[in-house]
Design goal:
The chain is mostly helical. It has a domain of 81 residues. Helices cover 76% and strands 0% of the residues. It contains five helices and no strands. Helix 1 runs antiparallel to helix 2 and helix 1 packs antiparallel against helix 3. The protein is elongated and about 60 Å long.
Length: 121
């Protein structure tokens, strides 16, 4: 059977799937590190409904005809989770106090780095 999907909408949905999962991957890494298993489970599963909506928006049905495209969504989901965890690991290795919120932590790290650079100049 022929699968008809708008390529630009599919690419946008795949990119959004990746981007939506980055902060959740960051949160997941925090929860795993601090042994908060309920938070870990929420961080892993909370973005799933968003990914399902994105998949529907892109016109991808849940059927074997779309198995390859669905595999791309799954790959982008896990890639986003992994990127978020990597950001968490980078900040933690550089001495940043990491928490649940990637945006606050990155901003705090940036401000501290800016102050260090201004003091050195």
């Amino acid at each position: 059977m022929h699968v008809d999907v708008n390529a630009s909408m599919l690419l946008a949905a795949l990119a959004l799937t990746l981007l939506v999962n980055v902060p959740f991957g960051y949160w997941r890494a925090f929860a795993k590190r601090s042994r908060r298993m309920l938070e870990w489970a929420i961080a892993v599963h909370a973005p799933v409904p968003v990914v399902v909506v994105l998949r529907h928006w892109a016109g991808v049905q849940l059927s074997l005809d779309y198995a390859g495209v669905i595999a791309l969504f799954v790959a982008m989901y896990f890639a986003g989770q992994r990127v978020g965890a990597m950001i968490h690991g980078i900040l933690a290795s550089r001495g940043c106090m990491t928490g649940r919120n990637m945006f606050d932590d990155v901003l705090r790290f940036y401000r501290a780095a800016s102050r260090r650079l201004q003091g050195a100049g």
